[in-house]
Amino acid sequence: MICTYLKPKIFQENSQIFEAGRPLHSMIYIVSGYVRISDPREAPSQIETLEKGTFVGEQLLEWATRTKTFTDQPDSEKTVRCPTKVEAFVLSVEDLKTLASKGILPKNSAGEA
């Protein structure tokens, strides 16, 4: 059921997917290419590389399983950039809300908002 909500997307070389401090708008599953993640809270900014087969923005999934109101959308803690072209599947925050409201996502009672 979740697969029907995944949308293919290509992020061009040198594009930015998420910016630290800005609301997370989607969860990304990397199919090809790689992304660089930096954390401006770290000095110097730590850089991590994620490649195909990994997720970015998984905080949204955690949020969708514990929230009741969907008014407290989380901000990205890190900046995510594409040094190369990245092919991915995207699950938007709106689709996550739909999945949660239909009871497709399991509810996490710990730390409910």
From TrEMBL:
Gene3D superfamilies: Jelly Rolls. It comes from the Eukaryota. Keywords: Ion channel, Ion transport, Ligand-gated ion channel, Transport. Coiled coil: none annotated. PROSITE patterns: CNMP_BINDING_3 (PS50042). One of its GO terms (cellular component) is membrane. The keyword Transport applies. Pfam families: cNMP_binding (PF00027). This is Cyclic nucleotide-gated ion channel 1-like. It comes from Prunus yedoensis var. nudiflora. The lineage of its organism: Eukaryota, Viridiplantae, Streptophyta, Embryophyta, Tracheophyta.
